[in-house]
Write a structure and sequence with these properties.
Blueprint: H1 15-45, H2 51-78, H3 87-93, H4 106-133, H5 137-159
Helix pairs in contact: 1-2, 1-3, 1-4, 2-5, 4-5
The structure holds fe (ii) ion.
Fe (ii) ion binds near residues 43 and 59.
Amino acid sequence: MSKHPALLEHELFNEKTTIELVALLNQSLADTLDLAYQTKQAHWNVKGPNFYGLHLLFDQLYIQLGTTVDDMAERAVALGGQALGTIRAAGSASHLEEYPLDAKQSMVHVNALIDRYSDYTSRVRHAIRKAEKLGDQDTADLYTSVSRAMDKALWMLTASQDA
Ligand SMILES: [Fe+2]
């Protein structure tokens, strides 16, 4: 059987499993990059009540997603795959809904982010189970830590909503 071109010599799992794991990680990489830049869009454009607190919160969430992007991309490569992490690749592969580019007021941003962080988190939870099913506890652990961080992010975003 010829080697898949996306695979390097160093493989921790058999070829079929590696391809599935790398595809899973690349999908998450695309979703995470999309969410990171959606969050930065909110950071730049937020206006209104609690401007400064939200401006800072959105940037903290963006920075955290940047670490997640790096972890996912490097896990894909460590498994023997190729990370697909350009903005264009991520933009066309992302499963998230596009951000409302005309959003200005604080609560429009908070609510738009809550919708997308919720969707993203449920996709991460699904990825935990998929990685476990493929026998990769380390990738499952990576997703578990992301899921825990997203719960915290969602708490901060929902706590910022109007009563
Ligand atoms: Fe900034």
